[in-house]
Amino acid sequence: MAYLQTLVSFLALGLPLVSALAFPGAVGFGSVATGGTTPFVVTSIADSGTGTLRDAVSVSGRNITFAVSGYIVLASPLSLSSSTTINGQTAPAPGIGVMAREVSASGKTNIIIRNLRMRQGNMDTDTGKSAFNMGTASNVILDHCSIEYGVFDGIDAVGTVNVTVSNSIIALPIGQQFGAHLETGPATWYRNLWVSAHNRQPLTKANSQYINNVVYNYQAAYTVANTGGLFSHDILNNYFIAGPSTTSAGDDYFQMNANQKVFASGNFLDSNKDGVLNGAAANTVGSAVVLTAPWNSGSTGLATLTAAAAYTSVLANAGASPRDSVDAFVVSTVQSLGKTGTIFTNQASTGLANNGYGTL
């Protein structure tokens, strides 16, 4: 029965048939990622050397677990190998994270990352880097990750094929102040919390599923861009919530031109910044062609929560676990429902410890 359910789900999404999901509960186009199988235990939070995360990802095919917790302060970008699984949920409390440089899966394939905090911030002097880069990669899934303080973007995914970002926090980008930039696809954005970005929440120039996300304190939220090309979008049961930095609540859908085909249903917009979740239906998608049914037959099956239920679930569950001070700050900002929120240029401006990175 389990095999038949997996078979049906992959056929519904139009995905190639594989023997198993990336992990139990994986959804969307990135769920085809196979990751690694060779066990490797990270035993040191040093930047480099034997037993470190950099050592772990230097060889393809590894399935990585953690015997240590805390921040890994990167002195240079952390480049992953193909066929890698990072199981951040195995780290002892309070969990595992990297800070100060980019994590890159550029050009790689079959990457699974779960429960990892990736916080670039202005300790990275290279303003052309992002918190997580998967440009020209394929078969990538990020789940229950916390991605904050991206400089160029929180997530950069130009030319990337088969992507899922699920149950994650993408928040507080500095520099360009952009959430995520994805091109090529297809892509699935599922039950994520997007907070305090100028734009790109996400910018998705791809056939996309955008389901049960919560976006707060945006200046532009779901974006395609006028030069995006011809794509289809299933936008289901998301909640857009204006905050102090929101200058036009109507930019919940941004640059949705006539080249785009959109099925939008069950979405809500709370625009009044009154501290109460009391939005109204928001399914008008600019000049895009309106579809009468999802472009992807699997989208409706993923949209199991209403927008209001997604708000509750995402705020309770998104991001790496256990939740640390940075994610707690992000969530409390959203819970103000219009009263607080800032688009930062420096992580230290949050007032959190450790120059704004918080401590693990």
Structure overview:
By secondary structure, the chain is mostly beta strands. It has a single domain, classed as Pectate Lyase C-like. It contains five helices and 26 strands. The strands form three sheets. Strands 1, 2, 4, 5, 7, 8, 10, 11, 13, 15, 17, 20, 23 and 26 form a 14-stranded parallel sheet that branches. The N and C termini lie far apart (about 40 Å).
Describe how the helices and strands are arranged.
Elements (H helix, E strand, L loop, with lengths): L1 H12 L24 E5 L10 H4 L5 E5 L3 E4 L4 E2 L4 E4 L8 E4 L3 E2 L4 E6 L2 E3 L12 E2 L4 E6 L2 E3 L6 E12 L2 E3 L8 E11 L2 E3 L7 E9 L2 E3 L5 E2 L8 E5 L2 E3 L11 E2 L6 E5 L2 E3 L9 E2 L7 E2 L8 H4 L4 H11 L7 H11 L25
Parallel strand pairs: 1-2, 2-5, 3-6, 4-7, 5-8, 6-9, 7-10, 8-11, 9-12, 10-13, 11-13, 12-14, 13-15, 14-16, 15-17, 16-18, 17-20, 18-21, 19-22, 20-23, 21-24, 23-26
Antiparallel strand pairs: 24-25
Largest sheet: 14 strands, parallel
Which consecutive residue ranges, at least 5 long each, have pLDDT under 50? 1-9
CATH class reads: Mainly Beta
Distance between termini?
42 Å
Please give the share of residues in helix.
10-25%
State the domain count: 1
- Tell me, rounded to a whole number, the average pLDDT: 95
Individual helix count: 5
* CATH architecture descriptor name: 3 Solenoid
Which structural class is indicated by helix and strand composition?
mainly beta
CATH-defined fold name = Pectate Lyase C-like
Signal peptide: 1-20
Keywords: Glycoprotein, Lyase, Metal-binding, Signal
InterPro entries: Pectin_lyas_fold (IPR012334), Pectin_lyase_fold/virulence (IPR011050), Polysaccharide_Lyase_1 (IPR052063)
Organism: Mycena albidolilacea
